[in-house]
Amino acid sequence: MSDQEESIYGLIGYPLGHSLSPLMHNAAFAALGVQAVYKLFPLKEDELGGFFAELRETTNPIFGLNVTIPYKEKVIPYLDSLSPYALKIQAVNTIVISEHRHFVGHNTDGPGFLTHLKELNFETEKKRIAIMGAGGVTRAILAVLCLLPERPASIRIFDREKNKAKILIEDMSVNNIDVSITAAVDSIDELKIESADFLINATPIGMKADDPCLVDGDLIHPKMCVYDVIYNPAETKLLKLAKARGARVSNGLGMLFYQGVLAFQHWAGMDLEEEIKARMKASLIKGLKA
Ligand code: NAP
Asked: Is the pLDDT of residue 1 over 70?
């Protein structure tokens, strides 16, 4: 992170829509007094190769990137090395580019989720965890849950496309992760939500006002923790229902925040002070309200 001339950081993906990442990272640059700016790079797939070729130029001022859908796996061939966790899950959401144009891929989605859980005091050790969805977020969450020294008792994953959950689990066992993970097949009933300690929604269902709630409210009990990766709206139908049933609930804003903090720390090569993190969080909240 140079403070001599303006460095550039940014997000690649397509489409990018209303990303909150520029707000969060530009707030941190301003608070640190670093001459840098975070920009959006909406790239079509046929533009990806050319973009990375330009990044290799020593005069290029881009020193760090975030990566979102649909390129978290597709950027890997363009990188020089991966962190052990990114290698394990084969998905990258953060790239650190050195002055010598060495490209290292990291993934902060899972660690961001975990950091948020710790803040919430949502325990996972020996817990029965039920996850709805088997996409990119589930992959990231699953890997961190399985890598913890404090192992969950079991993890069940439901996906309407059955093969996706099964493939995800196969990928995990290929990587020698030894937690009992089961794909809930046929119907969401197989998720056995009523006997879960921790329920996670990792589908986009709940983002739209007319989305249904995937879960029958009677299955939620007061000892349960319910986490929805969605952060806009702040309270999905699932969270409203779970709260009414006495469960402990959280949306995914903390996950978004911590994945950003961890990405920034990779670029900066240092931990951020609480005051800087507070400014990043405030900018996120302001952006959501706008
Ligand atoms: P993804 O890769 O597209 O996966 C979404 C999963 O949800 C898929 O398994 C999909 O199943 C499933 N799904 C979709 N509609 C469903 C339905 N009606 N019933 C059951 N399952 C359904 O997406 P992702 O990247 O994992 O993202 C998931 C959500 O997380 C999105 O809402 C995203 O905005 C949010 N997110 C939050 C954060 C954060 O920091 N808080 C970070 C990233 C993403 P099919 O395969 O059958 O379609």
From this structure: no
Residue 177 CB: number of other CB atoms within 10 A?
17
Q: Of 119, 117, 160, which Cα lies nearest the Cα of 141? A: 117
Closest CA to 221 of 128, 116, 121: 128
What's the CA-to-centroid distance between 162 and ligand 1, angstroms?
14
Nearest protein CA to atom 32 of ligand 1, as residue: 204
Q: How far is the CA of 9 from the centre of ligand 1 (A)?
A: 26
Please identify, by atom number, the ligand 1 atom nearest to the C-alpha of residue 229. 41
| 129, 196 Cβ separation under 8 angstroms | yes
Cα–Cα distance for residue pair 98/283, rounded to 1 Å: 28
Please give all residues whose beta carbon lies within 6 A of any atom in ligand 1, as ranges.
Answer: 69, 109, 133-138, 159-161, 164, 202-205, 207, 214, 229-231, 252, 255-256, 259
- The residue type found at 7 is S
Residues marked as catalytic: 72
pLDDT in tens, 50-81: 999 999 998 999 999 999 999 999 999 999 99
Residue whose C-alpha is closest to residue 33's, from 269, 284, 268, 283: 268
What does the block give as tokens for 212? 């249904």
Distance between CA atoms of 226 and 214, rounded to whole angstroms?
Answer: 13
**Which amino acid appears at position 155 of this protein?**
I
Cα–chain center distance at 288: 17
pLDDT digits (tens, 9 = 90+) for 130-144: 999 998 899 999 989
Instruction: Tell me the Cα Rg of the chain.
Output: 19
31 confidence band (pLDDT: 50, 70, 90): very high
